[in-house]
Amino acid sequence: MQATTKLQIPAARIIAGQRRSGLLAVRSLGPRARPGVVQKRYIQSNAQTDRDTITRLLYSIGTKREVERHLRIFSSSSHPSQPAKFAVIKVGGAVLSDLDELALSLSFLYRVGLYPVILHGAGPQLNEIIENEGIVPDYIDGIRVTDAKTLQIARRVFMEENLKLVAALEKLGTRARPITSGVFSADYLDKDKYGLVGKITRIDKRPIEASIRAGALPILTSLAESNEGQILNVNADIAAGELAKELEPMKIVFLNEKGGLFHGVTGEKLDVINLDEEYDQLMKEPWVKYGTKLKLREFKELLDHLPRSSSVAVISADSLQKELFTDSGAGTLIRRGYKLFKHDNGVGIAGIGADRFRQVVHDRDPEVLSGYSSVTEVLNNLGKSPYTVYGDEPLDVVAVVAHPPGEIPVMTKLLASRQGALNNVIDNVFEKIKKDHKKLFWTARADDEVVPRQWHWERAEGSFTRNGRSLFWYGVNKVEEVEEAVKTFEKNERIERVYLPVGPSAKPGAPAPAVTPSGKREYSTLARKAFGGVQQGFGVGRRGLSSSTTSTGLAASSANGRGERRGYATSAAAPEQPKRVALIGARGYTGSALVKLLGEHPGLELTKVSSRALKGFELEGYTNSAGQKVIYEDLQTDDIEKLEAEGAIDAWVLALPNGLGARYVGAIEKGRNSASPSSRANNGKGGIIVDLSADYRFKTTPQSPFASSVSSEVTAVTEEWVYGLPELYGRQAIRDAARVSNPGCYATSAQLILAPLVEEGLVDPQAPPTIFGLSGYSGAGTVTIDPETPGGRPRSAPKKTGESLGGGVLGYSLTDHIHEREVGWHLAKLAKEGEAGGKEGVAFVPTVAPWFSGILMTASIPLSKRLSAKDVHNIYSKRYEGEKLVNVFSLNDKENKDLGRQGGVMPMLADVEGKQGWSVGGWGVHSGGKRVVLVGGLDNLLKGAATQCLQNVNLALGLDEYAGIPVEKTK
Q1: What's the number of CA atoms in the CB half-sphere (13 Å) around residue 828?
Q2: Tens-place pLDDT, residues 826-877
Q3: CA 5 vs CA 40, 50, 92, 172, 627: distances in Å
Q4: Any idea which residues carry the catalytic annotation?
Q5: For residue 846, what are the β-bridge partners?
Q6: Which residues pair with 146 in a beta bridge?
Q7: pTM summary value
Q8: pLDDT of 941-971, one tens digit each?
Q9: Which residues fall within 8 angstroms of residue 933, CB to CB, at 6 or more apart?
Q10: Cα torsion angle, 728, 734, 737, 739, sign
Q11: N or C: which end of the chain has fewer CB within 10 A?
């Protein structure tokens, strides 16, 4: 076998001069750069080298920061439990005619570790064959009437085109799997009218997910089957839409020859369409008709069924990389966005609510945050001149423009959350302001981390910077006009002097120092046109590289392409104020452990704690940000419903015994549904729930045996629950979730200890693993002891103690433990197709031990093939690389002891008790090589409960996953 040589790419071919497509860069490589390969196009087989090389190629179409950000976002979208979350790509039949171009574009994604689901049509190919055979195509309502002969030809054509695409991908070293049946089930759309045409009724995503887990791109056709086994023809666009509704991917890409949607009058490509803001107006435009109107209606209907993080792109195959990996894009991006508002000073801040506006100013205004100004001063200054407030419904961006009669308007406030900046809401708001004001001045500080000065420079036509403060403007082209405006601003105190290009305050009667420009504009602004020639937020236009100059005098700067920088709604937003947490069931050991962690969390504040037994007593060991103690309440369902409806709680943590949480979940759901999106917490998402019981670990309604008596009134919920084990089942699903079920302590350790072997298909399917667990007695819970004196504080005591155990161990629930079911249920998601464990899944024996906290678990795992201890260790090291809360022990006793691991290669209680993470070691392999024995461990109150809960709260609220968690440092 010929050795793989690292691809050498002449740097000048990529970065010198023009920004060239990464595809062109590949094509330009000479044969010496492609050893052993005679094809014109070549992609290396070494996975990591490929990823690095192609990532560098992508830098040729966008900045390194752009490419790496988008790649990171896309890579985090999928996980083995939900591997098809990246993209659904619908390939038009006409695109299949240039198979090499298409295959190369898809291979780029594969080589950087992304697995789109590809569904193709074959309309032009089918029409050609039908015409050659003398059959006249018949259409009704734009739908191809399909008789038996047409369907026979269609099946053949679909199969041939599918295999051609698979072969083209395989030729490039990209694994692909043809899936021509088994995914779509359908009924007849109207048999008498359309013949053998189907309407999709069900989608089986298992073949798709199995293909991705096996490392192959799934290539689908749009043929469906009825319950009777009849093949039915389905329009490929409709099939792609239904598939997207099932998979809920980040991107739905429609590849066509044109490369986008186009303005019906000017003929220019539409760059971005924000449906919530522009759909109604677009549908009224006279040029939006026939196919364009149908497409827009279909896209809106599709996106209305998907999370706001999903978007549609219409693009050509050769520009796929530029569309996915740059902010500027290349085709047409369609997304939901949010509706924008505009309130003139007649309504002003009352239009959004004075309290909400005050909160935005308090949380975001740089002058207020630095102590230079106060919220009251900001509100008082608003009334000094006519003003208009702009923003979006969740208030991710709020802008205030003051416009006294006869003077140039000044944007006095531009207050954006991180989410508003990352998702380009700020761009949409700014475009709305530009539509209203042909001239504008505004200011910015260098220390604004949310909206960097680069953003301002790209949208300004001139600027002045001094001592970290900048003045920007557009629409004022003459230096004399700028000077006159500056004098007016100074005289009327409309802009603070620190931002103005003026000298020290002049003595009475002395002339003000003159201001001289230090440069001129290097480029002119490319205005974004829209329908009717009127500027709109979605517009059509081009984007380019920006150029700006700054100095201590007036400076000119410009940006071609003043349009939107396109981003994605998956980027997590950092907190501007502490998120408010309510803890229901705070009396037990887990509640206490969580309270201790929350006390050190920089972005969470415990505002409500509920315990019937401790009502009226102080919460011990916690003080809020105001230095005050938190008092226990006995929150009833009506109280909880009201708090949720008012948007008073950002995160609900239920630390209750199994079977007791459903009524609280029902109250939260009821409160959430009664509130308008604008009044809900978390920008309309509502209060997220993390439940520590077993009730929601399997399905939406309570499934633990303890919850069987709960009435249907309180079990009905509207949100699906996500299982929150970030290291195994993906972080993006938790970020998107409103309801998270925290795994059990035993179940967490058991899944972590089995998952790497399960994922690799190395567990013998005929012999389930056996796990023996030892847990500290805190896992048995507590009981409440009445106070010794009337009115005194009740105490909690452990149900079991070391004394009650006589220093020994006690087995319990020796079969059918609920964690046994939990482990098997969820690990099945990770198993390779056809290689899941036996019916029992896993045999688990729990035991309570005479120490307080900490689980030690021994797993005996039969293997499907022979492995060495080194093989097993490599699998676990690779699987958990980069996981901050996973500690993989070395094979070397001395190395472990040097790191303070007392048992050497074998985790001991001291290695896990009081620690935030999970450890694994042992590495015992039977002499026959087909059974491995591993030892894993965690603290049942921390990674087994409170720490994992905090991971899930952080992710669901958009915070850093490890915020507030004291991560232990290991080598």
Answers
A1: 14
A2: 888 887 654 433 344 788 889 999 888 999 999 999 999 999 999 999 999 9
A3: 17, 11, 36, 16, 62
A4: 745
A5: 773
A6: 195
A7: 0.46
A8: 999 999 999 999 999 998 989 999 988 765 4
A9: 858, 859, 860, 861, 922, 924, 925, 926
A10: positive
A11: N
